[in-house]
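Regression test case RT-17, inverse folding.

Input:
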């Protein structure tokens, strides 16, 4: 019997979705006797010797055993955020990382020119993420003297056309045009270490760098043990956690714990997405890349030796500036920039603009190179044997080194001629022998089969005509970035703008109940929607939610799925989030430091105070109408139709403003018993009403009723 190839691919994809896909972890394959493990030590991958990184360890009796409330596997952006929130909740935490740097894509993966949204400094990210960014800025402001140009620095106009805050407190060391903050990776590493220092000192946090998970054990519903291996000495560590957070870049724990997952592209039939391919393909994943940093040294020649594979990549047309000039082009800070006019390639992800600093603090510019020309395409590393993975990572390194060589020898010069030999590879910035990032920038990994899978039509501008994307009642975070897909797109147009979107709790909860919570790119998204959820502040938000969920479940002894299926737990999770100043609803005019941030966020998320559909404004100082107040009260108190409490605020004109005397009377009612600030006949603002109603909504009597 002949079986068509497409049917085989579809069958394999279906099995994978059901949790019967390959069970070997990313870079891991166990021996038949179970006494050894073969994996890739990514830090040891060399462009000219990939097999050097393939290591085989004999698994002996663990020399170290640890117990903790929350184990966070993976010290990337999501892992750092998850660990921090679990620690703030009073948990004991073990945080592991297979490289020797914490920070993931903002450090070890080299993307320290952050991909963010235009409201990131105000309301578009959590307070904790904002504080980390402030700490990074403060390093430069306190350690160096700015030039007048640095003091007067303008911020780029965002792709939405909105202006962003100006002032020295928003200083960008790189003065680049892709990001509002670019910096040297070592600065973020130092600030992350500071975040954890007190917890390490008091013993509540154990950090295990250069450790990788190799196996799990326990029941189908609960992982009881995670075994780690020290990549330097081969010693094993046994960790017994109450809750496990998978913050690895590729979702490494999912196959180990037999958690159902998807990888690659789903079919249009599976997701109904306009830009999904006709057939599912586990090999269609986003490109990965090894970024590198260069310094421009006028009059000098720093050309590297021609890397292996260069001619082949050149013949394939891999290397191009795509019409950009190196140093000339439009100023992204100017509103009169013509449509389609490019900014300079050099300033795209520049980490340090030496002109922003006085007294020769930095002698020259340094720029991070992360461009389509050094993205490796079509070489999936998920669920591959260690040898194959090492070979493909080595090829990615060859591609990046080849791009550097092309920039030095073949790139069209602005002044005529070819090549910029003045570009010097700054190996010290990435702290590696070859000058490439310690770890590839991973854009897509395994994704859990979740209670909620976010699809393209949930977030795309084309399918959401209001100011916000689809609203989720179980929102635990927010994000905003285009659906940015680096890789093969069978259906053109998959890359597109998105509306400000939410992170639903259901996307963090597996359908097959487990105490593993995803905290990075491994949540319930599709291949297409992942393109918007994979960026720095969104991954941070996913991590924060995962950390709070893990801590809540550990503290209350409940299964993770109960936080979704039982409303009382969901609302408690959301309350914990907003009181940590983590936004779960999109507003432009309610900053994370707003005194009524928690109240406004919570009430909006549960639907008590619905917002305008055509903008992102809450209008906090505007008077609240009686009809809006009635609807909000009816929602929180779970009241319908005529009711004595609601009738108190229904006067002759339903659109009149609510006044304090009416609200005071309601507050005195036996079912409410919440005092008001005053009791006169002046109007109640939306802000004041939210602050008062939040006290009612979070009262034990009403919490979790809606």
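Golden output:
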């Amino acid at each position: 019997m002949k079986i068509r190839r497409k049917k085989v691919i579809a069958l394999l994809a279906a099995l994978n979705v059901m949790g019967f896909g390959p069970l070997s972890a990313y870079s891991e394959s166990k021996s038949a006797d179970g006494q050894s493990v073969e994996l890739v030590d990514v830090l040891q991958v060399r462009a000219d010797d990939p097999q050097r990184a393939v290591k085989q360890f004999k698994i002996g009796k663990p020399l170290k055993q640890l117990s903790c409330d929350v184990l966070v596997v993976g010290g990337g952006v999501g892992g750092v955020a998850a660990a921090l929130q679990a620690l703030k909740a009073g948990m004991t935490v073990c945080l592991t990382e297979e490289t020797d740097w914490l920070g993931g894509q903002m450090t070890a993966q080299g993307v320290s020119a952050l991909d963010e949204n235009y409201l990131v400094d105000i309301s578009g990210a959590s307070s904790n993420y904002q504080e980390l960014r402030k700490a990074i800025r403060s390093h430069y402001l306190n350690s160096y003297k700015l030039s007048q140009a640095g003091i007067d620095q303008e911020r780029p106009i965002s792709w939405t056309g909105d202006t962003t805050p100006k002032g020295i407190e928003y200083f960008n060391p790189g003065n680049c045009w892709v990001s509002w903050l670019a910096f040297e990776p070592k600065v973020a590493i130092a600030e992350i270490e500071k975040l954890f220092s007190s917890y390490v000192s008091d013993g509540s946090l154990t950090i295990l760098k250069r450790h990788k998970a190799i196996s799990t054990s326990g029941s189908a519903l609960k992982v009881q043990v995670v075994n780690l291996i020290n990549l330097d000495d081969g010693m094993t560590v046994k960790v017994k956690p109450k809750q496990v957070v998978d913050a690895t870049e590729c979702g490494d724990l999912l196959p180990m714990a037999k958690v159902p997952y998807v990888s690659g592209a789903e079919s249009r039939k599976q997701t109904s997405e306009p830009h999904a391919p006709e057939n599912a393909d586990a090999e269609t994943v986003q490109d990965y890349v090894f970024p590198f940093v260069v310094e421009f040294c006028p009059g000098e020649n720093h050309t590297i030796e021609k890397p292996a594979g260069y001619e082949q990549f050149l013949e394939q047309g891999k290397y191009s500036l795509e019409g950009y000039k190196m140093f000339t082009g439009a100023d992204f800070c100017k509103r009169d920039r013509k449509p389609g006019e490019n900014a300079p390639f050099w300033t795209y992800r520049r980490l340090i603009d030496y002109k922003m600093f006085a007294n020769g603090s930095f002698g020259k510019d340094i720029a991070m190179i992360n461009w389509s020309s050094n993205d490796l395409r079509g070489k999936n590393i998920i669920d591959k044997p260690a040898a194959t993975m090492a070979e493909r990572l080595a090829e990615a390194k060859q591609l990046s080194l080849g791009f550097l060589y092309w920039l030095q020898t073949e790139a069209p010069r602005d002044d005529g001629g070819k090549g910029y030999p003045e570009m010097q590879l700054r190996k010290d910035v990435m702290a590696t022998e070859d000058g490439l990032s310690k770890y590839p920038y991973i854009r897509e990994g395994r994704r859990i089969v979740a209670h909620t899978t976010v699809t393209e039509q949930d977030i795309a501008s084309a399918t959401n005509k209001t100011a916000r994307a689809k609203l989720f009642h179980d929102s635990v975070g927010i994000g905003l970035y285009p659906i940015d897909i680096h890789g093969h797109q069978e259906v053109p147009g998959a890359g597109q703008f998105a509306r400000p979107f939410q992170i639903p709790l259901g996307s963090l909860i597996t359908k097959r109940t487990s105490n593993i919570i995803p905290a990075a790119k491994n949540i319930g998204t599709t291949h297409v929607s992942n393109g918007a959820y994979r960026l720095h502040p969104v991954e941070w938000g996913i991590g924060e939610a995962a950390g709070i969920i893990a801590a809540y479940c550990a503290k209350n002894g409940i299964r993770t799925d109960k936080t979704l299926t039982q409303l009382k737990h969901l609302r408690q999770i959301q309350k914990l989030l907003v009181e940590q100043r983590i936004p779960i609803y999109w507003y432009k005019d309610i900053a994370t430091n707003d005194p009524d941030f928690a109240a406004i966020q919570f009430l909006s998320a549960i639907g008590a105070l619905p917002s305008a559909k055509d903008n992102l404004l809450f209008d906090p100082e505007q008077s609240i109408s009686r009809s809006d107040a009635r609807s909000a009260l009816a929602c929180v108190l779970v009241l319908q139709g005529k009711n004595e409490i609601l009738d108190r605020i229904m006067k002759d004109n339903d659109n009149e403003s609510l006044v304090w005397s009416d609200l005071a009377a309601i507050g005195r009612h036996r079912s409410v018993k919440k005092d008001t600030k005053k009791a006169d006949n002046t109007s109640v603002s939306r802000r004041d009403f939210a602050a008062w109603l939040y006290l009612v909504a979070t009262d034990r009597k009403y919490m979790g009723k809606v």
